[in-house]
Amino acid sequence: MVGGALRTTQGANVDGRIDVLRGIVIAGAILTAACACERDRAVDDMDGGVLDFVVAVPVAPATVTLACPEGWRARTVASGASVCEPWPSDGPTTCAPDEAAIPGRGCVTIGEACPEDGWPAELPASGVTYVRAGATAGDGTREHPYGTLAEAAGVEGVIALAVGEHEGSIDTRAERIVGACASRTIVRDARTEGDATIMVRASDGEIRDVTVVSAAIPAVRFGEGVHFEVRRVVLESPIYAARVDPRASVEMEDVILREPEGTVVATLAARLSTGSSITLRRASVRGSIWLGDEAEEGSSTVVLEEVAFQDASFAVLGAFGTLEARRVVIERVELGFGVSPWTSATLEDVVIRELHSVPSSGDDPSAIFSSGDVTADRLWIADVEGPAIAISSAERIVRLGEPASLELADVVIEDVIAAEAVGAQDGTIATIDRIHVARVHGDAIAAADPGTSLTLRDATISDVTTVGIDGDAIGILLGAAATIERVAVRGTARGALLIAGPGTHVGASDLDVDAHAAGVVVQCAIAPTETCETGAEPMLTLRRSRIVGAHGFGIGADQAQLTLEDVRVDGVSARGPLDGFGIVEVSARIEGARVEVVGATRHAVLAFGAATALEVTGLRVTDTRPSPPCEGEGCAREALGDAVTCAEGASLTLRGFVAERAASAGVMLVQGCASATFERGRIVDNALGVLTDATVPRPRFVNVVVDDNGTDFGTTTLTVARPTF
Prior knowledge:
Structural class: mainly beta
Distance between the termini: 39 Å
Low-confidence stretches: 1-48, 713-717
Mean pLDDT: 89
Number of strands: 49
Number of helices: 1
Radius of gyration: 34 Å
Helix content: under 10%
């Protein structure tokens, strides 16, 4: 489906961040506070000061760098990103009918002033046939020109058209058709049948300084195998402004290709064929460039330089072999670039904006919809009611046996409404360097399916809100793999990073999150009842990362494997009637080094469920806060805040740790926690030191100080509230 959104769920619900901790209930129980600690060594002597570790801070992402082309203006948009504005004023421009919208130049008149004598300048001394509309008794000379186009039929050499309205058409082998000036030399064709108003059959030649207006057939048709240049020309037709036959090559400069004012049916500015090519430089296009269905896939070429597409169904679509676009603006269309499996597209300094849906089309707008190879540098996409960039390898793998690819550098995307602003799936290989994504309704960046690979470096993502079940800054799903480096997330509706589905593998470093939603969630299940086979669990390695102000979860793992190094989780709060969790794992395994959880609400670190293992060297958990009061149906919170909890068959190993200033327990081992080992640590200044019950094997404490808690040793009974998820 052209312009359709990538599916991330294969029809299933991936909104599992509440079901991540499916069925977890630490039931109300009678607990016994107990501790068997060796306290004969000072904490300061333990392992060379391992308790004084420093968590490395994330490296900030590099900013998007857009060196503006000549005539373009540097501009800062609402999200704070710097972009290049191609028009003299901010936003899309609208030009007069006789003007061309040229990026970096604004509205310009095509051609120069008409010569005083009304004849084209710079004509050769011989071989010229002259035509002046209305002349009589002519012989084709300058002194006695023909009065009609029909009289010039069959001539070769040069056809020179004087200023005036020339009625009719030209079917010629002439090498050159030259007007006096585009503004006042007009060829007007009222026919409803015929090959074209100007049918070009010469092998090489030129058309310049003329306006061609066709009522119902192509304005110009370039015959098979011809090679023509078109300069300072306006082509208007409700069918095709230009038709390029097989193996023909056309270069156009300073041109307007357009449909008539008031045209309702979508018009093609240019239609290409097998082996043909078209180059547009300094062009204003109201219409679309398309490759005919009968053409051989991958055999044709489109080159665009300083071109504006406006007010059309789409800009460029078809099974071209090569598509090059430099300094191009696309505005007020439904589809910017449709890139086929056979196409290699190179985009540089491109603006695509104001892509709105048309109820009659049935498709979502899309700036770039691809199943081929796309390389884009310095790209600005804004105001799209559909995906900004959607790429799938499915058709290419079937047809060509190889994946599609996406390479982006220095990209700004804003104001997008779609399941994914940028989405890659079905085995696509995607690399993104320096991207700024803001004000997205849906996921900002997503990759899905086995074989799909995403490398994301230097990204800033902000103001992500929901559309349907989507609303994550980054989603890696259904067996995709990703490498993520230097990403800042500021404000998401659902989460900063969602990793879901069997076989999904992610390595992330320098992730800086202030999301006000879930932080990082890694889960096997796509639907709530799904489970992963052993060895198929999703995997995440997270290094040098910070998660601040998350709601619900800082880091959550369900049937997953995580490695955490230099990770800080700060200020996780409860969400609605639900408890908050700094780091929580269910039937998962987390290994870590230098991990800090500060100011979490209710649960700072929780290991829960059979096959769950938490092993961290260097863990600091401080200032765990009680759950705030809540009201309404489903609210079951009590004012408790536990630093480290192990329950329901989980195992826990901490080396070099601190658990201090918790509103409730520094360490809670309950409901069948399978094993717990603590080495070189401090459990201090908590309401309760260590809590355990009769279902838990005796924990192992080596060189652990338990002191200055409200209750350190002895026996205390109390009822522990059920956490809410």
